[in-house]
């Protein structure tokens, strides 16, 4: 809620929709309309998407409506998500182990 009164104090938030590759932005994230909190809708895979950049719009309910956009950047870090594999004994011997 901003410092204005009545309708001008009611702020709503939304994604500025766009495409991310072949998918819509809203398949990756959502924005709570009243609080502006951003939520990931699925795990973000570094190998598919290193950086997710998008805009969130905030608008009041006044007449005329006033608003602004902010750009958010989400960096997707990688982690070791591969199961460990055993190395054949021949390769270990060649490596001097």
Q: Which keywords apply here?
A:
single chain, 97 residues, mainly beta, Immunoglobulin-like, 3-stranded antiparallel sheet, two-stranded antiparallel ribbon, 1 helix, 7 strands, 6% helix, 36% strand
What does this structure look like?
The chain has 97 residues and is mainly β. It has one domain: Sandwich (Immunoglobulin-like). 6% of the residues lie in helices and 36% in strands. The longest helix has 6 residues. The radius of gyration is 22 Å and the shape is elongated. GO terms for molecular function: calcium ion binding. It is a single-pass membrane protein. Keywords: Calcium, Glycoprotein, Membrane, Transmembrane, Transmembrane helix. Its main location: membrane.
Quick gist of this model?
The protein is built from 1 helix and 7 strands. It is mainly β and 97 residues long. It has one domain: Cadherins (Immunoglobulin-like, Sandwich).
Largest sheet: 3 strands, antiparallel
How many helix segments? 1
The structural domain count equals 1
Which class of secondary structure composition applies to the elements? Answer: mainly beta
Rough outline: elongated
The CATH homologous superfamily is named: Cadherins
Approximately how much helix is present in the residues? under 10%
The CATH topology is: Immunoglobulin-like
How far the N terminus sits from the C terminus, by CA atoms, comes to 64 Å
Organism: Myodes glareolus
Membrane topology: Single-pass membrane protein
GO biological process, one term: homophilic cell adhesion via plasma membrane adhesion molecules
Subcellular location: Membrane
């Amino acid at each position: 809620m901003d410092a204005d009164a009545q309708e001008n104090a009611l702020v709503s938030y939304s994604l500025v929709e766009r495409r991310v590759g072949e998918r819509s932005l809203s398949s990756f994230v959502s924005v709570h309309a009243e609080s502006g909190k951003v939520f990931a809708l699925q795990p973000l895979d570094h190998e598919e998407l290193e950086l997710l950049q998008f805009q969130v719009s905030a608008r009041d309910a006044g007449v005329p409506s006033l608003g602004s956009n902010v750009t958010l950047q989400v960096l997707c870090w990688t982690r070791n998500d591969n199961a460990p594999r055993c190395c054949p004994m021949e390769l270990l011997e060649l490596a001097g182990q």
